[in-house]
Write a structure and sequence with these properties.
Layout lengths: L3 E6 L5 H10 L4 E6 L2 E6 L14 E10 L7 H4 L2 H5 L5 H7 L9 E7 L7 H16 L3 E2 L12 E7 L3 E7 L21 H11 L6 E4 L6 H9 L4 E6 L2 H10 L5 E5 L12 E6 L18 H10 E11 L5 H6 L3 E10 L2 E9 L15
Parallel strand pairs: 5-6, 5-7, 9-10, 9-12, 10-11, 12-13
Antiparallel strand pairs: 1-3, 1-4, 2-3, 4-8, 7-8, 13-15, 14-15
Helix pairs in contact: 6-7
Length: 365
């Protein structure tokens, strides 16, 4: 098979994580890391790129040209991307990589870096109409806010200041839309970010994994997908979160219950891994013992972690890390990410006490 060029889109800050997953899965060779993008080349006829867990979405690279700059007329000039794309081979390539074969309609999503004298809808309509004309199929504009028909093929246009890129989504819908996500709650974690956190935790078979602020269960499910031979428990103080978690966890060997994250009903040192997206005043206000201070959360995290255990947490800033250090937790990795326009930090910490209760080998992705 002729080599195909693929592009994985992701949360800003997860580019190295997505690249690592591409390599671990043997999907291809990394050719470029950009803003929210990982480009890779594969010669495999069935790369299974649609199985990537840390990517928001994955596309076939369809065409490139020079970035059109900031001038208003630049948006219309991007219709050239449709002329440059090999629309005959793209459907066959998409099908071979796990997506649908036919192009039954066109919908386009655009984004760009820097200030422009046009908006994203100008770009989408210019490229979308050109693609629809070449393919002889319909185009759905996002300008009025209506969702596109589910059968339409998804295209993406990005401008990074140097080049304009046109891509065709491989799967029928974005990868971040997980089938298990039947219910949600405010502050629910983005699934690819949860998958990245689970990967950072390096969960081993037989270990106990705890989420003291489990919300709708996203972290626990993504961790179970990576290591189904571990044991998983989650707690939350909000009854609405537990109802959502119950819907999402249906049929999975994961238990959840109601508890305050500052006073968990588990023995000392009983968790080999802790994964957590704590509610520290962002979309969700802290409740119970955490309402006045984050100190009880850090104290409880230290108490439940086994000697040498690992915690991976999402923090709104690094200013709270000294509190964790005072509780004898050692930060060993800090990674800046941007989620919903806000800066956050992925932090991996270890508890003192040697190698802990490691059992078996790493699962990986």
């Amino acid at each position: 098979m002729t080599a195909a060029n693929l592009v994985a889109r992701c949360v800003h800050g997860l580019e190295p994580t997505v690249a690592a997953e591409v390599l671990q899965r043997g999907l291809g060779v990394i050719t470029h890391l950009g803003h929210r993008e990982v480009h890779f080349r594969t010669c495999r006829s069935e790369s299974r790129a649609v199985e990537l867990r840390t990517a928001d979405d994955v596309f076939l690279l369809a065409a490139r040209c020079a970035d059109v700059g900031a001038a208003k007329e630049g948006a219309a000039a991007l219709a050239r991307l449709a002329d440059l794309a090999d629309l005959g081979s793209l459907p066959r390539q998409r099908e071979s990589h796990g997506g649908p074969g036919a192009l039954t309609g066109v919908e386009v999503s655009a984004s760009f870096l820097g200030r422009r004298n046009f908006n994203r809808h100008d770009v989408e309509d210019a490229v979308g109409h050109a693609l629809a004309r070449r393919l002889g199929i319909g185009y759905h504009s996002r300008r009025e806010g209506a969702a596109p028909p589910s059968a339409h093929s998804g295209w993406r246009v990005t401008l990074d200041g140097t080049r304009a890129t046109l891509m065709l989504r491989i799967a029928g819908r974005p990868l971040h839309r997980r089938d298990y996500k039947r219910c949600s709650v405010p502050g629910t974690l983005h699934p690819p970010l949860a998958a990245a956190m689970a990967g950072m935790a390096d969960i081993r078979p037989g270990q106990t994994v705890l989420d003291p602020c489990c919300g709708a269960g996203t972290l626990l499910i993504e961790a179970w997908r990576q290591q189904p031979e571990a044991r998983f428990r989650g707690f939350d103080l909000a009854s609405e979160a537990l109802r959502a978690a119950g819907e999402n966890l249906a049929g999975l060997p994961i238990t959840v219950g109601r508890a305050d994250a500052g006073r968990l009903p588990v023995p000392d040192g009983s968790a080999d891994r802790v994964l957590s997206n704590p509610p520290w005043g962002g979309q969700v206000a802290a409740r119970g013992l955490l309402a006045a201070s984050s100190s009880p959360w850090w104290a409880e995290l230290r108490r439940v972690l086994a000697p040498g255990g690992t915690a991976v947490v999402l923090l709104p800033g690094v200013g709270d890390l000294p509190m964790g250090i005072r509780h004898q937790l050692v930060p060993v990795h800090v990674q800046r990410v941007r989620v919903s326009g806000a800066q956050s930090f992925l932090v991996r910490l270890t508890a003192p006490g040697g190698r802990g209760r490691t059992r078996g080998g790493a699962q990986g992705y």
